[in-house]
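During the no-cost extension, the postdoctoral fellow (Dr. R.K.) reprocessed legacy sequence entries with the updated structure-token encoder. One reprocessed record is reproduced below for audit purposes.
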Amino acid sequence: MFLFRPIAEKDLSALVALARSIQGSLTTLPADEVFLEDRINDSLRAFSPRVKKAGGEYYLFVLENTETGEIVGTSGLAARVGGFEPFYSYRIAKEIFSHPPLNITREIGVLHLKEVHQGPSEIGALYLRPHYRRGGLGRMLSLSRFLFMATYPKRFDPTVIAELRGYVDQQGKSPFWEAVGRHFFGSDFFAADRLTGLGNKQFIADLMPRNPIYLPLLAPEVQAVIGKVHHETEPALALLKAEGFQETDEVDIFDAGPQLRAKVSDLRVIRAARTLLVEEIVPAVPADSLLLLATPRLDFRATQAGAIEREGQALVDEKTAELLKLRIGDKLLASSIR
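Re-encoded structure tokens follow.
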């Protein structure tokens, strides 16, 4: 079985190994041991019962193969973007240029740099080892964190965003970065992306172009990738859209990947969730219809397993009860995994 749980201090070496195995790396999960140790400590503080509202907290979860103890994936939640470190994006707008005497009117796409200091919540750091991308584990890894948000709504903003990885070509280069960012930063995409992941954002304010960027000045092949996702991110895009996320008029400042947005309360997995009381723990229950099961407490744990529901109560099997630390009479959050 697989367990979704908050990251712990003992997971540092496994987290470093996982980050180092990611081809191309993730902005929110750089392969830097000092940073990842700080990230774990940040997450431990975020789960403090003293937190009463959305601030700068960052929650990091892992997916554990309970048979081997291997950490096979991660997913994260930022309670609010902005604040001490501003959040940057490009907003795509349309501007009208007109000269009536010559009967000329043009609608031109423009990128405006946007800086946010008190923004919405954000999901990120989603990664699952390729060997485990089957059996709904990717969905479980992504959707479980939404149930945590539903359990503690005051810890998060009512709106949540997702910045998805942008398109890269067959040589592993970002056409948008090569056309825009490289001219101002003087480095390759991954170096700038790594700095951002390590929390160094002052260079963005100092080096990003301050004036709007008019899209017709970019090559057609660059314009075509604005708002387009990395090929490995297409399943995540489809999943989030199915849950209720919608594309916005904003893209990432480095690779022009799309930004998605949703109301937390509108997400499918949350609307389908119900709170049950554990009535009985039995040796086995039919597993023909798997559910996403979670414990609605700060020691949040989730898994996908079978359960029998009847009149607000649930029968769960012994393995599930052990995994989720359930006793008879405990509350259990259940939702459909698909």
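The first strand starts at residue 2 and ends at 6. The two ends are 18 Å apart (CA to CA). The remaining legacy entries will be reprocessed before the final report is submitted.
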